[in-house]
């Protein structure tokens, strides 16, 4: 890699650290300020922060890699994600923004659940916190793995050094600037990702002689590459179960703490429609840009007789081959932007849970705001070390690591978040049953050898679908057996309705 590429990356790193320092100087030194930005995010920052923290390294590595390997059949994941994100903005965003403020100004998901269900036993908080800490540590590790792969394939650094550099920069600005730093860097990173995912497939198309020539090249490689119904990698037809399995990725949005926490932090309900329009436009263009990068990239490397050892590095290879080193460095910065935006969000949400849901509730309930911020920073460090250790272990594909964590959150929290905001009769016991059922079904679906030849059931259907359905059923059945009945809940709902009327 040439020196000018290093300059691009150095500028990017300095900018991210500078934003972290800016947020540190301008943020209020309180738990709400550090962990939720004081609930004052603008619509554009909310939208791009939610999108960038959502998509992570799998947007620029996992999605292109899946398209490179399996062809257009992987687009079903994109369709499912777009539908899920849109419904999340419509159903969850406004209600969660209002309800979390009404429910004693809850600033974490376990906070909200305990206050919403008046759980004096704290059992719901403990279970929800455990799910967040376990799955987010795995999720964070997937981003660090992506960073390690990037530095290994682009800079010739050892994978372990790439892991350390990626984690080190993210931890620095997250540790110092908290939620506001994470959100502002996410906004910048979202802009970088957008430009990169429009630029790369466009240039590849020109290099191949236009759209028609590119499609002809793909057909020559395999007629299945442009088929939505046939997996080009295996040649097998994707049936209804397979399509439902891929579409079910969209169910994950309702239960992702690092995404829905952005809705809790937006400055007002009036700003949400603008955030939805910006966020969905960004997502649709970026997702299809990533998909075309993988698909058109396959045509390019085949035509040039380039041997690609890892299909998830197609974006990196194209950025090095087709662009001036200065632009190539910018494109590599886009991958780092995708990786870092998600890692920082996940670190902060896990830190929030450790601070508010573990330390504050079980060790020192009267901890000062300053102490809570300190504990939050220490928690960021602890979780990052655990994620680095995992990244040093078995090197799975980025998409597989993300899919496991995405399913865990989506099934454990998704049905409960939706029903807790839309159905008054959900009880505390039902909430606990829903979280446990969703998490257990996902883990069993991934690891138990219940399929043919002792395989896991994940090979048949993505684990989020059975997990989500079982969790929803558990909540409904238990609520019917033991419905919520509380005067306090009636008062909270009255307050919630007044809040909606006032802020709209």
Automatic annotation (TrEMBL):
GO terms for molecular function: L-proline transmembrane transporter activity; proline:sodium symporter activity; sodium ion binding. Its main location: membrane. Keywords: Amino-acid transport, Cell inner membrane, Cell membrane, Ion transport, Membrane, Sodium, Sodium transport, Symport, Transmembrane, Transmembrane helix, Transport. It is a multi-pass membrane protein. One of its GO terms (biological process) is proline transport. It catalyses: L-proline(in) + Na(+)(in) = L-proline(out) + Na(+)(out). One of its GO terms (cellular component) is plasma membrane. InterPro entries: Na/Glc_symporter_sf (IPR038377), Na/Pro_symporter (IPR011851), Na/solute_symporter (IPR001734), Na/solute_symporter_CS (IPR018212), Sodium:Solute_Symporter (IPR050277). The chain crosses the membrane at residues 6-24, 75-92, 126-146, 158-180, 187-206, 238-261, 282-302, 314-339, 374-393, 405-423, 430-448, 460-478. It comes from the Bacteria. Pfam families: SSF. It is found in: Cell inner membrane; Cell membrane. Catalyzes the sodium-dependent uptake of extracellular L-proline. Belongs to the sodium:solute symporter (SSF) (TC 2.A.21) family. This is Sodium/proline symporter. It comes from Agaribacter marinus.
């Amino acid at each position: 890699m040439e020196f000018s590429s290093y300059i691009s990356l150095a500028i990017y790193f300095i900018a991210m650290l500078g934003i972290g320092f800016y947020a540190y100087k301008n943020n209020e030194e309180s738990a709400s300020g550090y962990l939720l930005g004081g609930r004052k995010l603008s619509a554009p920052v909310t939208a791009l922060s939610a999108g960038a923290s959502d998509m992570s390294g799998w947007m620029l590595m996992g999605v292109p890699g899946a398209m490179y390997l399996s062809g257009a059949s992987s687009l079903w994941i994109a369709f499912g994600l777009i539908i899920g994100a849109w419904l999340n903005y419509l159903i969850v965003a406004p209600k969660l923004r209002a309800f979390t403020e009404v429910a004693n100004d809850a600033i974490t998901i376990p906070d909200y659940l305990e206050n919403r269900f008046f759980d004096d036993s704290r059992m719901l908080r403990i279970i929800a916190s455990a799910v967040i800490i376990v799955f987010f540590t795995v999720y964070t590790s997937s981003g660090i793995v992506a960073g390690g792969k990037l530095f290994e394939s682009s800079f010739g650094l050892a994978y372990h050094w790439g892991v350390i550099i990626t984690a080190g920069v993210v931890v620095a600005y997250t540790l110092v600037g908290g939620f506001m730093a994470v959100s502002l860097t996410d906004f910048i990173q979202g802009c970088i990702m957008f430009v990169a995912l429009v630029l790369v497939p466009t240039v590849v198309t020109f290099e191949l002689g236009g759209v028609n020539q590119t499609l002809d090249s793909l057909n020559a490689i395999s007629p299945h590459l442009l088929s939505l119904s046939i997996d080009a990698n295996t040649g097998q037809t994707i049936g209804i179960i397979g399509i439902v399995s891929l579409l079910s990725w969209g169910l994950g949005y309702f239960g992702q703490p690092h995404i829905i926490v952005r809705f809790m932090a937006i400055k007002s309900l009036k700003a949400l429609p603008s955030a939805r329009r910006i966020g969905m436009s960004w997502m649709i263009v970026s997702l299809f840009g990533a998909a075309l990068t993988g698909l058109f990239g396959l045509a390019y490397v085949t035509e040039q007789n380039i041997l690609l050892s890892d299909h998830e590095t197609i974006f990196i290879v194209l950025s090095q081959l087709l662009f001036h080193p200065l632009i190539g460095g910018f494109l590599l910065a886009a991958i780092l932007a995708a990786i870092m935006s998600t890692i920082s969000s996940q670190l902060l949400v896990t830190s929030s849970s450790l601070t508010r849901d573990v330390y504050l509730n079980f060790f020192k309930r009267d901890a000062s705001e300053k102490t809570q911020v300190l504990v939050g920073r220490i928690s960021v460090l602890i979780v990052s070390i655990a994620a680095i250790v995992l990244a040093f272990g078995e090197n799975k594909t980025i998409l597989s690591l993300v899919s496991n964590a995405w399913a865990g959150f989506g099934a454990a929290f998704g049905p409960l978040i939706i029903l807790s905001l839309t159905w008054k009769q959900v009880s505390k016991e039902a909430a606990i049953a829903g979280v446990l059922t969703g998490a257990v079904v996902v883990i069993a679906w991934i690891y138990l050898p219940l399929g043919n030849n002792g395989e896991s059931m994940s090979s048949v259907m993505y684990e989020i679908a059975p997990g989500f359905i079982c969790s929803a059923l558990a909540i409904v059945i238990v609520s019917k057996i033991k419905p919520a009945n509380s005067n306090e809940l009636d008062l909270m709902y009255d307050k919630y309705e007044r809040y909606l009327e006032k802020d709209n």
